Fold these 2 entries.
Entry 1:
Amino acid sequence: MQELIEAIEKLGSAAGSDVVKVDMFLNHRLDTTLLFKMGEELAGTFREEKPDLVLTVEASGIALALTTAHALGDIPVVFAKKSQTVVQSRDVIQASVYSFTHKCTNMIRVDRRYLPQGSRVLIVDDFLADGQAALGMMSLCTQAQCPVVGIGIGVEKGFQEGGKKLREAGMNLYSLAVVDRIEDGRIVLRREN
Amino acid sequence: MQELIEAIEKLGSAAGSDVVKVDMFLNHRLDTTLLFKMGEELAGTFREEKPDLVLTVEASGIALALTTAHALGDIPVVFAKKSQTVVQSRDVIQASVYSFTHKCTNMIRVDRRYLPQGSRVLIVDDFLADGQAALGMMSLCTQAQCPVVGIGIGVEKGFQEGGKKLREAGMNLYSLAVVDRIEDGRIVLRREN
């Protein structure tokens, strides 16, 4: 998606050999205009799959999930939670997710009522790296007996394994931008996406 | 705001004497249509204050912040973070916030670049209880030398101290719905809001 690619080239930065920083517009400060365009693009890609709801994981997936759900005709969003709150329901589905960014394992949890059996789920997240979050959300959907009709991603780190794993598993995965590699401290985007 | 009041009456529930659960439409599952209407209402309330950006705190404030920012003409959103990631900038502003829900103290952090000095900030959050999160965000703005032009809230728990404290401090606070009390396990909304 051209606007996202331009934002990454203009405002993104690399750290070390594998960290892609897009804090400025995607996951700390949000470029509202861009987020809505990204949501429209994901909605256009997955509209024919007729999703009933968008599933994401807190926190930075929420914005793109919401704009995608809006462009799909205001379908609901469900965001999996990482923390066990004192107001937790008793009927909770959970999956474990290792975060390479935070270097720890989180459980992600969804109240079962919000993934009604048979719902057609579109998974959306801002980032795809090793695919741990997406696999965790797929596990939640399997437990809830909900088909995953697609996975829509903002930025895929093409040099990590997530995209490959998900495509090989037959998932309908679409990423708005794919980082091919980090070269001399510079982000190189994949053009043939 | 009538649609929100109806959603709370229909889908909200109380736990104990002080927990208001709106998981079904506001902070776990998101009613996308309602979130956009809430954003329009907050935008209408604060438009004349000419905010430059919306500040919220992850995770459940993000959706309402984004729809408010959209209705204000797609101004940016900045969300304060609760966790120290490995990709943290060095120039970070922070404030401590006690969460009555999670029964712990969190630091909230914002990269100073995303609160440029002099920016007119509209603080938005899904909930207002004891006001700790709002006070933490106000502290971030003070440190960044940004005026807070208003505070827009989804659901205020009117029987806790946050609203009173902020209004007495002279803040321009508007809550879309105010829970007056929990009575016999039932949520009673304040009508004169």
Note: Chain B touches chain A at residues 15, 19, 21, 23-24, 28-33, 35-36, 58-60, 62-63, 66-67, 69-70, 74-79, 81, 83, 85-87, 89, 101-103, 110-111, 113-114 (CB under 8 Å).
Entry 2:
Amino acid sequence: MRLVVVGSIGLDTVQTPSARREEVLGGSVSYACAAASFFAKVGMVGVVGDDFPEAHRALYRRFGIDLRGLQSAPGRTFRWSGVYEEDMNRRRTLATELNVFESFEPALPPAYRKCPFLLLGNISPELQLHVLGQLEAPEFVAADTMDLWIRTARAQLDAVISRVNLLMVNECEMRELAGESNVIRAARAVLRAGPQYVVVKKGEHGALLVSAAGVAVIPAFPVADVQDPTGAGDAFAGGVMGALARGGTPTLDAIRGAIACGTVVASFAVESFGLDRLAEIGSAEIEERLAQFRSMVMV
Amino acid sequence: MRLVVVGSIGLDTVQTPSARREEVLGGSVSYACAAASFFAKVGMVGVVGDDFPEAHRALYRRFGIDLRGLQSAPGRTFRWSGVYEEDMNRRRTLATELNVFESFEPALPPAYRKCPFLLLGNISPELQLHVLGQLEAPEFVAADTMDLWIRTARAQLDAVISRVNLLMVNECEMRELAGESNVIRAARAVLRAGPQYVVVKKGEHGALLVSAAGVAVIPAFPVADVQDPTGAGDAFAGGVMGALARGGTPTLDAIRGAIACGTVVASFAVESFGLDRLAEIGSAEIEERLAQFRSMVMV
């Protein structure tokens, strides 16, 4: 196993301007593991309830995801529902039911503990630290977070940030984290708090990679037919870490290449609800779109 | 003369989160001509009142801008004032005084009429058509517009769009123009109305170039110290057209290269209020940042 991913597994009810889907397989760990699976062997750490459909588990297996870290707990699976506004860049959460996720205690199976790459999806910083502590000698650790933890668990979050190699958060969270409205200055401030690399996720506007070497700019792959943006950031993060885990040493150049991979996988993810589109494609489609992407962004 | 630019000249009062400046030299033609001047000989078509400071005219001359098309009319120069919100991406207009701009009748001096490149800055489509009609045989024409004209002068705007080679508008306007929320689909719809090329300006998120050949993605140069975003889109458009006018045939590759030039000039423009930063730099700084930009966006 090259990569372990921990995060949420949910059944999402999503309303977009053109469609509505109920109880779609979602959650950060679903998107990230599916995305990573195109590049490297990935193991999942998450929890589902006893209502979790067997078909979803079968889909995870089709992606080749290792499920030894997938716990099943009595009760209902985490549920989220939200609605996207006309321009698909803004969403409103209608309801969140934590259910079994509320008492989630991520435990790494022994087979995961020597894994070199770790992606800490968006869960409480306390749980992120708990997972991090179970890995014997991680080579490269990335973490995501959200506004909730910035506001309610800052000390633990700072502990996470000080111990990861790469922090990947979205634009608003980067600003909030640093208390600085310019994202580049914000990313530089966060960089001083520990990570070697900071990635600012800007959704359909791409991403920025900030490190001691400077700033790299990665536009998003332009998608004409966005069906559902849910999970795009998680697919991006999973694709980045999968591509990094596939390669050798995570150098700056390797990270830049991995970000291109994450960008392309995320562009597929938004072309359907849930993991539907990712389930349709393979390495050939990813390589083809990567080549197209490279020819598009040459300046 | 390689390029003629028509547009507004204004004295702008701008409030940002950190500073306030009064009566700064602005307007689309000021920014566009200054930006274009780094690449090609450019002539200005605009109007100022009899209160227009001689120092501003002297600054135009320092940029090497041809001023034979600059009219002076009795009355006050156009004035605009606005305020930028905390994240610098949103601005509110506080006041607009058209003054001499209200009765502006752009007339091209004879020396301008054989000019091969034309940039129609954001003025009424009626005036844009009037200017276009005065050029003998333009080789490549670009136009900008704004929401006001989409709503109030659609027929004339459609006539402009049908006659230009390149339409450059911002993201919101592209959506409004096409009645389509996905910008790529919107740009494709506009493409069918006449232009060979459509550029979607996304401010700090860069630009998209859409043509029959597909979509090209150009991120913005990341600027850590944005002093004033006013005029960035105009500096971008001027830089693009200046770089195109410098070269030979405006092929797709030439346009992509020109967009990189426009991006870099715009990144300097936002580092100060008005034209202050553009007045400090020369070709060497632009070439240096272009090289830096190319190394940043390689994926």
Note: DSSP finds eleven helices and 13 strands in chain A.
